[in-house]
Design brief:
The structure is a homodimer of 200-residue chains. By secondary structure, the first copy, chain A, is mainly α. The first copy, chain A, contains nine helices and no strands. In chain A, helix 2 crosses helix 3. The radius of gyration of chain A is 20 Å and the shape is elongated. The model of chain A has no long low-confidence stretch (mean pLDDT 94). Chains A and B meet through helix 8 and helix 9 of A and helix 8 and helix 9 of B. Chain A binds a DNA duplex (30 and 30 nucleotides) through helix 3.
Chain lengths: 200, 200
DNA sequence: TTGTTTACCGAACATTCGGTCAGTTGACAA
DNA sequence: TTGTCAACTGACCGAATGTTCGGTAAACAA
């Protein structure tokens, strides 16, 4: 049996992992459709054809990246901390955890949020994402029913705006500069749960 | 002098305006780079070459659409209602007005928010958008300095999250179903200014 | 009926696209 | 030194891309 050797023989250079991570960063700069295999090759410092030695093709590159984002989100759905306790507390945990995943897997989540369903790969990712949205939406409804969040706003609308706020982080966040994931989550929860206005 | 006659002679069919509006809706479905001139032709019910009778090319179509969104935003910057009074009130007005423009020019603003700078056209649009962001950012700083919004959060971060929330509306809003622009702005302001939590 | 204006078609264009393949290069182990 | 394995090159393919152009069809005015 051939086990993958970490220090394998042969020429050293790229492997599927490094190709993926560089490809995703280019996808996020120029957009998936706006990125050619030539663009990727240039960013990798190799020829176009070399990419096919590591990865079956462009769309597989996208599929692997999207799975990486979605797998993170679905770990949350099955976590016991999302299943018991007051809904408002579970919602807070899900929000905080979402920010953590978004920051921890920033390039992959960024790519996911820009998918529009142009291929079967993208449509499958969209469907998984919708499933996550339903999970969160249900949680917000519970929090509203338990009186944890204000009763004068539509829970479905709250869900959209709340996760719109979270997802917008991908538009500007840079891991090097700025706050950590936890600090960011703190600020976001303060604003969304207690409001911007002073006093209140 | 030749004035453009509204009921002009000749074969009736598309004009630059109808081409633009249909093109933008296709751009938003498939993404600008993911849309071919064939796609546009199919949506218009004509041949590829017919499009060039109305519009100089694909990129000009994008440029005109982006200007339509940006012109709306900059009308706000020069409005006297954004220049006098307590900063918190001006901020509230700008937020409400932003939602109105976003809803009123939904397809154009949606397109603008997805631009990443792949061409000079896109770069120019990004620069105008950054200028608008600076205007809003300054307003939030004023509101913080005047004590209108809470002092324990970074104004720059507040700006990003606040407009992240607003811009996320483009991800789901459908003019036919759901709330009007003003109702939507009311809910958004309630949540962002007073918070989700009940009581408070 | 004729002339003018506008909208459009169909064929072709140069270029770029994602992808294939046979062969070469370089690092390590034996 | 030789063999092996992975990484890579360069030439190439068919299809799709945005755009051009010469000619045509339809609506209106005269």
């Amino acid at each position: 049996m051939v086990t993958r050797n970490p220090a394998r023989p042969g020429r050293r250079g790229h492997d599927p992992e490094s190709v993926l991570s560089i490809a995703v960063s280019v996808f996020n700069e120029r957009g998936y459709d706006g990125t050619s295999m030539e663009d990727l090759a240039r960013a990798l410092g190799v020829t176009k054809s070399a990419i096919y030695h590591h990865v079956p093709g462009k769309e597989q590159l996208l599929a692997r990246a999207l799975d990486r984002a979605l797998d993170g989100l679905f770990e949350m759905v099955t976590d016991p901390r999302a299943a018991s306790g007051p809904a408002i507390d579970r919602l807070e945990w899900v929000v905080r955890q979402s920010v953590r995943i978004l920051v921890g897997r920033l390039p992959y989540v960024t790519l996911l949020l820009r998918v529009r369903g142009n291929s079967v790969t993208e449509q499958a990712a969209l469907e998984r994402r919708r499933e996550f949205d339903r999970f969160v939406s249900h949680l917000v409804k519970e929090a509203a029913a338990e009186g944890g969040i204000r009763a004068d706003v539509d829970p479905a609308l709250v869900t959209r705006l709340l996760f719109g706020t979270i997802n917008s982080i991908t538009e500007w966040y840079q891991p090097s500069r700025g706050a950590s994931a936890d600090d960011l989550a703190d600020t976001l929860l303060t604003i969304t749960f207690d409001g911007l206005r002073s006093d209140a």
